[in-house]
Amino acid sequence: LKGFPHFMLKEIYDQPETVRNACRGRMIVSEGVSVLGGLQSKMEEIKNLRKLIIVSCGTSYHAGLIGRYIFENLTDLNIEVELASEFRYRRLRLDETTAVLAISQSGETIDTLAAIREARRKGALTIGLVNVVGSTIARETDCGVYCHAGPEIGVASTKIFVSQLVILNLMALLIGRYQSVSLNEGVAVIKALQNLPDQISDILAQASQLEELAKTYQKYPNCLFIGRQMHTAVALEGALKLKEISYIHAEGYAAGEMKHGPISLIDENFPTIALLSNDASYDKMINNIQEIRARSGPVFAITYTGDAQAEKVADDIFRVPETHELLQPILSVIPLQLFAYYCARFRGTEIDKPRNLAKSVTVE
Ligand code: M6R
């Protein structure tokens, strides 16, 4: 545990190294491209793909939702993201121009495995994005990429989520550079990936600020997380982390849905964590915060370093450094992991082994 009281905290602090391990030997900066040995044997089929369906569960599903934006931005593929537990019951039309990408830390999740088996039966190429070397999903997919993140012991997935997001960018870049992505666009992603470990360390150095905020927010029985675009999935992940280890009831929502239901929950006892980023959704997120504050809802905003408005409208803020738009979720999720961890610590729950949960779900 290297002096950490819990594996979860150790794994959160491992993340600069996790990113380095995910990238090591996999990027050619001058060509703005990635090299993924595990996909090499199927590269001809991969170049001819028209559609990619991402299947996964839990935190790995949230990585898939962010993966949709990454692939849509860097490739010309049509992308679907499906919970593995739902995918296998659909009436699917799969052929050799469709690949199914399974994302799994353990490589043993029963629903994800069943989805891959169903996809293979129907003739689709199957690709794995897995952490555990030699696991069943790694063995049963046609090709794949490992996270090389070492073991993740805490039941709450942290460093693997970050690793998955890094590798989704590398995979999309590999395909995208055969399609319309330019050299300069490729180089921009790679350079941003190279800066990530130090940016993550900067966030970790401010952990005490999140501990202070958690002391206040853990007193509320409920918590809403909102974001837009890629940050909708970060909101889902922040809510999953919090509910899973602290047992605080938490929901993640696309901020654009607030007026379609959830805003009726808001009062002075129902806090919201709002995720802002420096993109086209920024002004709409500020509006969302104002609407929540107008109904006396406490708001804690996670925003970027240069933002001047959030501190005027939210009760509390935490800033993360800015990076390439496609990598921003990697930085925004880290304060949410720490926030969930400290809330759970104040509540005295079993952080590494939450009640009723197992690290990998091998039985339906
Ligand atoms: O091993 P996998 O990535 O396939 O596991 C998927 C989920 O069971 C997992 O991410 C789960 O949601 C975590 N406990 C979340 O922290």
UniProtKB/TrEMBL annotation:
GO molecular function: carbohydrate derivative binding; glutamine-fructose-6-phosphate transaminase (isomerizing) activity
Catalytic activity reported: D-fructose 6-phosphate + L-glutamine = D-glucosamine 6-phosphate + L-glutamate
Main location: cytoplasm
Domain SIS as annotated: residue spans: 42-181, 213-354
One of the protein's GO biological processes: UDP-N-acetylglucosamine metabolic process
Keyword terms: Aminotransferase, Cytoplasm, Glutamine amidotransferase, Repeat, Transferase
EC number: 2.6.1.16
Localization terms from the record: Cytoplasm
Record flagged with keyword RNA-binding: no
Catalytic center residues: 359
Any one cellular-component term (Gene Ontology): cytoplasm
Quaternary structure, from the entry: Homodimer.
Record's function text: Catalyzes the first step in hexosamine metabolism, converting fructose-6P into glucosamine-6P using glutamine as a nitrogen source.
Descriptive protein name: Glutamine--fructose-6-phosphate aminotransferase [isomerizing]
Organism in which the protein naturally occurs: Sulfidibacter corallicola
Lineage of producing organism: Bacteria, Pseudomonadati, Acidobacteriota, Holophagae, Acanthopleuribacterales
Gene responsible for this protein: glmS
Coverage span on the entire protein: 245 to 608 of 608
